[in-house]
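Lab notebook page, bench 4
Experiment: in silico fold of construct C2
Operator: M.H.
Input chain length: 189 residues
Purpose: comparison with the prior construct
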Amino acid sequence: QGKRVTFAQMPFGGLIAANASGKIDMIVAGMFITEERKQRIAFSDPYYETNGRAYARTANIAPASASAPGAATATARPMFVSTDDLDGKRIGVQLGTVYDLYATTTYPRATVVQFPSYQDMTLAVSAGKVDAGLSDVETLAELTMTNTALVPFGEPLFSSPVGAGFAKSNPELRRAFNAFLTQIRADGV
């Protein structure tokens, strides 16, 4: 594109405001495309679609055989068989992500605990400060490669397209990025 790139590490919860105000030109951070976010920023064409998943410590997840009819529970500690079991539990979410609103509306009896970063949330799940966390499947796959004590459970929560975010005042950069996406799809990159 012939542009000089400077990367900025920012809290996820501040990305949309920074982009909308012109502090940053582009968000490339696994940003789910939602109607609410479209009101504040413009999105590129989606570059992939992902699923949201719940994860917890292995010790808190019922073995597959426990979900069979008539199966006995061998322990009294909290267990997850399906994502329905999240209601009434402590759910960790990263501040500013779609999981915050999703957890609050889908599991009204749950205590939703917001964390400033994915790492903080994951540490809280590992330490038992929250019962489960919510994440996209790609980020969760990276996590479980290095932390085998945390595993996904239940069915995917929902699916969403992901795109880059742009200030509505900069349609040229968005068009150039979409042309780039079209090119790399066409040539197989």
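Observations: Confidence is low (pLDDT under 50) at residues 65-78. The first strand starts at residue 26 and ends at 32.
Next step: discuss at group meeting.
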